[in-house]
Q: What sequence folds into this?
């Protein structure tokens, strides 16, 4: 065959129109490479050169589809925690490659006859990227509309609202009959006095006229602690301190401190002009006393000069005193219907003075599990129990008990309190 015939055959081969998709793609890429490189002689590493990393031998172009599924897929890729550079440089072991292919075929099934064009047969709006335990993100499985409806239905077992109802705590048995009845002759019938107090060591102190009796609830033993001297010098208040110390207020405006374990009187303190109707311990050595003279005195039971401060904020008898568990606030109630709140560091005037009650305020109790929450109870003309936010003086709740409130005691095991009442 002559050279002219060879050239003619090659010319005819180049001008022949390709009749297969594969040959057509090769022709398009060849023409595109020549245009981008500036001709066959250009050897620079341009983006269109065959040696450029953006082209692969035998590859194909990605033809995007601007459908809803593509946007959802882009959102998922955007939410992925792995940067694109890490994805490209990741380990391309056969196992991981098989996993990627399986994941792609499961979520993004290709169209028949063309695996290079991604055709999403259903939108990815229900596919969400959820963090897993190892910090990576995974796609939730596709759900049909009926499945999504069942999952969101309240009757579905997997629905949060369909979870089994929270089991109610079984009601405690509250006995209606007393465990023990103590004979208490000569118990003074006076609403403004505080004649009972229970110690942390389970000992009950009871004031009967001019005597104080102790009953040990653990052993059932009862004995007489003291008896005052002088006609009409009755016991008007009792309050246990830490340990075995008992403070006793008398009608003669005197305060006695007793060591119950040793059955010995420790000391006596004065300062009031009338009977001491209320007592309250603030710490191991700080004792506050309220009197019919409308004054409150803070005592340091360790010092010879025991009087620390005199608080003047009431107009009539102070019948209720209670220090907060943290020791920073003192609540006082009086026959003037006032509830006063005092700061331990400021003794000039009450920080808050509340006038909501319509009768004497004797019953006072600080909440043991919520700071700055105080319960107070009023007398016969009021009959209400109020819960207070002592930080700003707001009344949190109010209950009409239909009877005189004599005392309030919070439970240390449950979020509740018990109250005692008169007429």
A:
């Amino acid at each position: 065959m002559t050279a002219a015939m060879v050239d003619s055959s090659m010319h005819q081969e180049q001008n022949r129109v390709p009749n297969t998709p594969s040959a057509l793609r090769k022709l398009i890429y060849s023409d595109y490479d020549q245009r981008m490189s500036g001709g066959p002689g250009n050897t620079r590493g341009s983006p269109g050169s065959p040696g450029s990393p953006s082209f692969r031998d035998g590859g194909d172009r990605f033809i995007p589809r601007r459908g809803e599924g593509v946007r959802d897929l882009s959102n998922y890729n955007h939410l992925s925690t792995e940067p694109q550079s890490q994805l490209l440089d990741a380990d391309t072991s056969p196992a991981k490659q098989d996993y990627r292919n399986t994941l792609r075929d499961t979520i993004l099934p290709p169209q028949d006859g063309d695996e290079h064009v991604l055709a999403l047969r259903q939108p990815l709006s229900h596919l969400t990227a959820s963090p897993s335990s190892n910090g990576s993100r995974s796609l939730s499985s596709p759900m049909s509309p009926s499945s999504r409806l069942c999952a969101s239905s309240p009757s579905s077992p997997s629905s949060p609202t369909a979870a089994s109802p929270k089991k109610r705590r079984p009601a405690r048995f509250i006995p209606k009959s007393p465990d023990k009845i103590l004979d208490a002759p000569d118990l003074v019938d006076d609403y403004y006095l505080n004649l009972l107090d229970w110690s942390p060591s389970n000992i009950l102190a009871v004031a009967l006229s001019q005597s104080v009796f102790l009953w040990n609830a653990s052993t059932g033993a009862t004995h007489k602690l003291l008896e005052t001297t002088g006609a009409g010098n009755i016991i008007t208040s009792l309050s246990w301190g830490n340990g075995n110390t008992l403070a006793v207020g008398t009608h003669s405006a005197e305060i006695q401190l007793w060591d119950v374990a040793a059955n010995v009187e420790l000391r006596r303190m004065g300062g009031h002009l009338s009977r001491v109707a209320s007592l309250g311990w603030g710490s191991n050595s700080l004792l506050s006393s309220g009197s019919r003279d409308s004054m409150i005195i803070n005592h340091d039971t360790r010092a010879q000069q025991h009087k620390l401060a005199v608080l003047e904020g009431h107009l009539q008898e102070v019948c209720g005193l209670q220090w907060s568990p943290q020791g920073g606030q003192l609540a006082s109630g009086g026959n003037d219907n006032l509830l006063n709140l005092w700061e331990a560091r400021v003794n000039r005037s009450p920080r808050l003075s509340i006038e909501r009650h319509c009768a004497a305020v004797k019953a006072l109790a600080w909440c043991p599990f919520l700071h700055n929450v105080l319960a107070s109870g009023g007398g016969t003309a009021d009959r209400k129990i109020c819960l207070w936010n002592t930080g700003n003086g707001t009344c949190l709740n109010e209950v009409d008990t239909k009877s005189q409130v004599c005392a309030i005691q919070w439970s240390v095991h449950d979020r509740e309190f018990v109250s005692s009442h008169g007429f």
